[in-house]
Automatic annotation (TrEMBL):
Keywords: Transferase. The keyword Cytoplasm does not apply. Pfam families: Acetyltransf_3. This is RimJ/RimL family protein N-acetyltransferase. GO terms for molecular function: acyltransferase activity, transferring groups other than amino-acyl groups. Residues 10-146 form the N-acetyltransferase domain. It comes from the Bacteria.
Length: 178
């Protein structure tokens, strides 16, 4: 990109054509190290997941596209769209590809900006919730930058290991404006 062009960041609905990319990124070591589920997900597991989520009205699976190149997945789940509008979210990026291209930080900032905007301006949520593993200090710092508030840590057993999970939340009124 020359200095006059602007980066583009877009979230679009994931399709069956994206399933192979989602699985390959999710199974990258970098992503598995900061996920509750650390084992490599099999194509069969992934197909079951996709089958369950693609038409579930309480979920959204979106592809993050940066400069016309898919490079991440954002999931919204546990959506409650009547009464107080709440939902939870998570994301992962093509960590290996972005690292090779030297684009990790701008993509990370972009996906977080787009996801928060989608949550509040697209889904019209009042509160966005999520979780982060306690050892994932870089994400915890980024969450604070975006004004997420950490809750009380809790212990969980996942993939045969004890993990500390920290709930996070961001109220509509507290979000950063562009």
């Amino acid at each position: 990109m020359n200095g006059k062009e602007r980066e583009t960041h877009v979230l679009r609905e994931a399709t069956a054509d994206d399933v192979h990319l989602m699985l390959s990124w999710r199974n990258q070591e970098t992503n598995r190290q900061v996920s509750k589920t650390r084992h490599e997900i099999t194509p069969e597991e992934h197909a079951r997941w996709w089958s369950a989520v693609r038409d579930d009205p309480s979920r959204r699976v979106l592809m993050y596209v940066r400069d016309d190149r898919p490079c991440g997945v954002v999931t919204f789940f546990d959506l409650r769209l009547d009464g107080p509008r709440t939902g939870a979210w998570g994301f992962y990026l093509d960590a290996d590809g972005l690292d090779r291209r030297g684009e990790t930080l701008p993509a990370w900032l972009g996906v977080m900006r787009e996801a928060v905007e989608y949550a509040f301006d697209g889904l019209h949520l009042d509160r966005l919730d999520g979780e982060v593993l306690s050892h994932n200090t870089v994400v915890r710092q980024m969450n604070r930058r975006f004004r997420f508030v950490e809750g009380t840590p809790r212990q969980e057993l996942s993939d045969g290991r004890d993990i500390t999970v920290i709930p996070i939340s961001l109220a509509r009124a507290d979000r950063r404006q562009r």
